[in-house]
Amino acid sequence: MGLVETEGLILKSYSLAEADKIIVFLTENEGLVRGVAKGAKRLKSRFGGSLEPFSVDQVTYFQKEDRELVSISNIELINSFFKQASDINFLGKFAYLVDLLTEFAPPHDPNERLYRMAKICFKTASEDAESLESIVFYFQLWLLRLGGYLPDWSKCDVCGEKFSSANNAYLLSNFHIVCGQCQKSRNNLIVTPEQRNLFETAQKLSPSKFADLNKNRTQDLKEMSSILRRIISNIIGKETASEKILTASL
């Protein structure tokens, strides 16, 4: 492939040998990329603070066809959200979202909508701490939608009847929902009309507008996020390490 220049969102970094780092970043044009930044751990590194997680950078790297790791030659910082990551709540939640990106985004498979969604979610949450719970839910939902995994909650999965704005629905083990007439177990989790409204409006609004509309609905957002976490864990076949930490802190 040769020399590549693209905008990227830095997700993770790892130490490599004495002076180098492995950087994991999601790019606008090339999908998920892992690369080596030589000399990044030195005090006078040319990369400076541009390799910190949650930063948006212009990245230049060289890729050989027979190697998984690219060689990063230059990074120019565009925007950084690392300051906000000093907040333990922000850090814990976004570490989970970063893990989801690395699980769902195939290496070197461009997905412009996924990149733009992740970037605007990071930006929105970093600028308004009160939006964090809304953004986590929004991010999970759109990750599932863009991957083709989001269930249809507009109608009963059994009879096909459209849900009214007044009736509860009931969650099945396959994460679809049914009406009161079709549910066969009293142990099914109730999904309220208000919670279904979150599910629907998140698919119609931008992250910032959705967050502004739902800042005071913390409990509904947490309960819906919990359902989406279960769907995601079922898809990838495991809980991520950050998810276990996040769940334990709730």
Can you walk me through this structure?
The protein has 7 helices and 8 strands. It has 250 residues and is of the alpha+beta class. It folds into 2 domains: 1-82, OB fold (Dihydrolipoamide Acetyltransferase, E2P); 85-250, Up-down Bundle (de novo design (two linked rop proteins)), CATH 1.20.1440.120. The strands form 2 sheets. It has a 5-stranded mixed β-barrel with strand order 1-2-3-5-4. Strands 7-6-8 form a 3-stranded antiparallel β-sheet. Helix 3 (132-147) crosses helix 5 (207-214) and helix 3 runs parallel beside helix 6. The longest helix has 19 residues, at 218-236.
Characteristics:
8 strands; five-stranded mixed beta barrel; 250 residues; OB fold (Dihydrolipoamide Acetyltransferase, E2P); 38% helix; de novo design (two linked rop proteins); 2 domains; alpha+beta
Task: Summarize the topology.
Elements: E1 2-16, E2 20-27, E3 31-37, E4 55-63, E5 70-80, H1 88-104, H2 112-127, H3 132-147, E6 169-171, E7 177-178, E8 189-191, H4 193-201, H5 207-214, H6 218-236, H7 241-249
Parallel strand pairs: 3-5
Antiparallel strand pairs: 1-2, 1-4, 2-3, 4-5, 6-7, 6-8
Helix pairs in contact: 1-3, 1-7, 2-3, 3-5, 3-6
